[in-house]
Structures are given as structure tokens and as C-alpha cells.
Amino acid sequence: MVTATTREARFAPRTLAALTDRLLARRASEAGCADALRTEVADALSHRDRSDLFDQEDPSADSDATTALMLAEWVERRLWEVDQALARVDAGTYGYCIDCDGPIPLERLRALPATSRCLGCSHQFANRDRLRTNKVGGRSLPGFGPAARRGER
Description:
mainly alpha; 153 residues; 5 helices; flat
């Protein structure tokens, strides 16, 4: 594996600066969303007893708080991905796949500036993740997995 200290510059300085600007803009946007969602969750929870968050008798009463909480978690993940990409810029490894160490195409980075994987490794990661989340107790869940995609029951 090639280390960051022995690599040639992946992009021209202007290109890297433009990609970094996109990452910083995305970070600002995601941070704003995260702050707004944290406030919304706090407001929703302040009006209810936390032990009733998943009230079985009236699940709709907590749907706003639950939705905001799920969205906040999703935005926090996006924010973390942007921070990791900015760390890779600082380390000189931005633009290289974290799995295969191959170059990530500039077009992909322009579309998804926080991406950490090339397209091939991204597909492999998604397939591994899908197989892991669609199994319970070592068995595939009904309606998921290769058999379901082939139309088998």
C-alpha cells in the first residue's frame, strides 16, 4: 500500500481547493441541520415524559420526536463523513479509496465530495452491509437477499 508521504499530489491545487470548499460548504449546511434537529428533538422531549417515548398505546404521539431523532442521527452521520473527508484532505489521502487505495474519479468526488470509496468498493460495501442488515440469527429475512431478488419465495 502506498502511504500519503510517498504520493504525488492527486489533484491540482485549484481543484483540491474547489473540492475542499464544497466539503466546507456541506459541513456548514449539515451542522446547521444537525443543530436545528437537536433543538427539535429537545423541544419534543421536553413536553413529554421520556419513559413514554415509545408509547405502545399511542405510538403516533411520539412520531415527531422519533422522526426528528432518526433524522438527527442521519445528519450526524453525514457530518461525520464530511469531517473524515476533510481529515483526508489534511493527510494528503483525499481522492483515494479507503479500501483499495485506488484513485476515486474526480467526477465522483464532485458529485459526492465526502465519499471515501471508489465506485467498485462502494458497491461491495453496500452489498456487505445489505446482507448483514437483512439477516436475523444467521437466516435471511423473508423478502430480502438473493432469493428475493430472483423472485423466489
